[in-house]
Design brief:
Shape of chain A: flat
Number of helices of chain A: 7
Largest sheet of chain A: 5 strands, mixed, barrel
Distance between the termini of chain A: 46 Å
Strand content of chain A: 25-35%
CATH class of chain B: Alpha Beta
Strand order of the largest sheet of chain A: 8-9-10-12-11
Strand content of chain B: 25-35%
CATH topology of chain B: Ribosomal Protein S5, domain 2
CATH superfamily of chain B: GHMP Kinase, N-terminal domain
Structural class of chain A: alpha+beta
Subcellular location (chain B): Cytoplasm; Nucleus, Nucleolus; Nucleus, Nucleoplasm
Low-confidence stretches of chain A: 12-17
Strand order of the largest sheet of chain B: 1-2-3-5-4
Function (chain B): Non-catalytic component of the RNA exosome complex which has 3'->5' exoribonuclease activity and participates in a multitude of cellular RNA processing and degradation events.
GO biological process, one term (chain B): rRNA catabolic process
Helix content of chain B: 25-40%
Helix content of chain A: 10-25%
Domain Exoribonuclease phosphorolytic (chain B): 18-148
CATH class of the domain at 11-71 in chain A: Mainly Beta
CATH architecture of the domain at 11-71 in chain A: Beta Barrel
CATH topology of the domain at 11-71 in chain A: OB fold (Dihydrolipoamide Acetyltransferase, E2P)
Number of helices of chain B: 5
Oligomer: heterodimer
Radius of gyration of chain A: 22 Å
Radius of gyration of chain B: 19 Å
Number of strands of chain A: 17
CATH architecture of chain B: 2-Layer Sandwich
Number of domains of chain B: 1
Structural class of chain B: alpha+beta
Pfam family, one (chain B): RNase_PH
Largest interface: A-B, 45 and 45 residues
CATH superfamily of the domain at 11-71 in chain A: RNA polymerase II/Efflux pump adaptor protein, barrel-sandwich hybrid domain
């Protein structure tokens, strides 16, 4: 086995912006944000003697009188309507607990899932007993945030044929602030794979799903089916592209992922994991984005 | 061995009120929610923060605030003599408790009821001031994880020789014997304690200037205590300036990448 060694990369060249100038509206914990008079205390702030101070390091955002500090990195903070990927951790009475990178485990009620086969009826005691047959601990699901509870946990639902159990594919975990909120988070990419960009920073890459298959209710999980090598290679390349974009802090949405995939074709799949190659691709993606937006 | 030379300099050429070089980096692990690496002179520490997440042990869940779970460990190669128990020995357990208490009062725990935050500190090279370095590194890691805190926790260790406080001790100085203290200290007590009095403080400079931790090893006369605390707090303020610079640089870099400067 050969070992390759590289020298450490200069962080500023990888970030693509050259020299980084300090932001004006940035605060660190404990720093004074505003005098409290005339301002409302938002997320990321607290008061000492009537003055607003920051409790996280980030950028100050002000909407009318509301002052918030947005941290550059944090756990997933849910919003209603977000598409998320989660892993079942526990089956309880009438509900599943789902790990969604949030600060508490999310809840998926039995009443807010579609039954296999898309049958519409009230959930009975038999359904309650069958819960482990539907979703077992360790299963991955895609779902939508239905409700936020006051303690900060989320209630999910899968009442749409797009949502449900995930079968064969690759899960990549990234920082939630890197996933751009868009109209759609389900993408069938032209390179021959489908991607679900969970707002919670979990990204699911799987083989292309055709429209007929998705309408079965989302519980079909065929683990015996063998995905052909070419498709697996596309999936592996995509997952490497996503992780290299994430480690170089490029926002993730369909355009960036497709362009990273196209640029990465000149390299072997395993080469994408090298830090210098990743930085180069991320730089090219940024340059391409900049030319497209102009 | 005297801590100070006759000209008032320490063994490594520092003045009594001078801290060692600080070198740090945020976000060193991709898997952890927050992480930091910190060098204070030759003391090198890694810290990783996981959470806030669902508490894994039901019995430890707090209904009104989040639980802070710390672990202090020293790498087996961190000291000049190989360590066979990196964690779990008496000293590590004690320092773990100190870390937990410090961050319990610094983190806004009531914002995350029923959750848990894990802080892991690993000393890679031990050259004095381990607890202070761990607190500083953990503080950076918590900032990286976006955990709300009352301020940037900064810690410093302070010792006293001939009644004069010396901040940020290195290992050679920590083990130095002190033959005499100022006359005001009870000499019997000084003879009993072979080492110099050491004081570790953790503070929140900038915010409400609270003392979060005050840990004194060995006896010291209470007349001297105030001077030592004062010197230690000043040392912590110097550390705070370094940490803040590092955080500002890191946040600027990330925010620029995320194109937040336009918003």
């Amino acid at each position: 086995m050969s070992v390759e060694m590289t020298c450490p990369l200069d962080a500023t060249t990888a970030s693509g912006s050259g020299r980084v100038s300090e932001l004006k509206n940035m605060v660190t914990p404990g720093g004074r944000v505003a005098a409290s008079a005339g301002f409302m205390r938002g997320h990321g702030t607290y008061t000492i003697d009537g003055d607003l101070h920051a409790s996280v390091a980030g950028v100050v955002e002000q909407v009318n009188k509301l002052v918030c500090v947005k941290p550059v990195k944090s756990r997933y903070i849910g919003e209603i309507g977000d598409v998320v990927i989660g892993r079942i951790t526990e089956a309880q009475q009438k509900r599943w607990k789902v790990e969604t990178n949030s600060r508490l485990d999310s809840v998926l009620m039995l009443s807010s899932v579609n039954l296999p086969g898309g049958e519409l009826r009230r959930k009975s005691l038999e359904d309650e007993l069958m819960m482990r047959e539907y979703l077992h601990e360790g299963d991955l699901i895609s779902a939508e945030v239905q409700q936020l509870f006051h303690d900060g946990s989320l209630s999910l639902h899968t009442r749409n044929l797009r949502y449900g159990k995930l079968s064969q594919g690759v899960l990549v975990k990234v920082n939630p602030s890197l996933v751009k909120r868009r109209k759609t988070h389900f993408h069938n990419l032209p390179c021959g794979a489908s991607v679900i960009l969970g707002c919670n920073g979990y990204i699911w890459i799987s083989r292309l799903v055709n429209e007929q298959e998705t309408h079965t209710g989302g519980y079909a999980q065929n683990l015996d089916e063998v995905v052909p090598l070419e498709e697996r290679q596309v999936i592996a390349r995509l997952s490497n592209c996503v992780s290299l974009l994430a480690s170089n802090r490029v926002l993730l949405y369909d355009t960036t992922i497709i362009s990273a995939f196209d640029i990465s074709l000149q390299y072997e799949i395993k080469e994408l994991l090298k830090v210098d190659v990743g930085a180069e691709i991320a730089l090219e993606v940024r340059a391409k984005l900049a030319t497209e937006t102009q | 061995m005297d801590l100070l030379s006759e000209h008032g300099y320490r063994q490594d050429g520092r003045k009594p009120n001078q801290i060692r070089n600080i070198n740090c980096r945020l976000g060193v692990y991709s898997q952890a929610d927050g992480s930091a690496y910190l060098e204070q002179g030759n003391t090198k520490v890694l810290a990783a923060v996981y959470g806030p997440h669902e508490a894994k042990q039901r019995s430890r869940i707090l209904e009104d605030q989040c639980l802070i779970n710390c672990q202090y460990s020293m790498a087996t190669f961190s000291t000049s003599e190989r360590k066979y128990r990196p964690r779990g020995d008496r000293k590590s357990t004690e320092l773990t408790r100190h870390l937990e208490k410090t961050f319990n009062s610094a983190v806004l725990t009531t914002m995350y009821p029923r959750s848990q935050i894990d802080i892991f500190c690993e000393v890679l090279q031990s050259d004095g001031g381990n607890l202070a370095a761990c607190i500083n590194a953990a503080s950076l890691a918590l900032v990286d994880a976006g955990v709300p805190m009352r301020g940037i926790v900064s810690a410093a260790i302070c010792g006293a020789t001939d009644g004069q406080p010396c901040i940020d001790l290195n290992a050679a100085e920590e083990s130095a014997n002190i033959p005499r203290l100022t006359p005001c200290i009870d000499l019997n007590a000084a003879e009993e304690s072979a080492n110099i009095p050491r004081l570790t403080v953790a503070t929140l400079p900038g915010g409400d200037d609270d003392l979060l931790l005050l840990e004194l090893d060995h006896r010291v006369h209470h007349d001297q205590l105030e001077a030592i605390i004062d010197a230690a707090v000043k040392g912590a303020a110097q550390v705070h300036a370094c940490l803040q610079t590092a955080i500002r640089k890191h946040v600027s870099e990330v925010a620029t990448c995320l194109q937040w400067e336009n918003s």
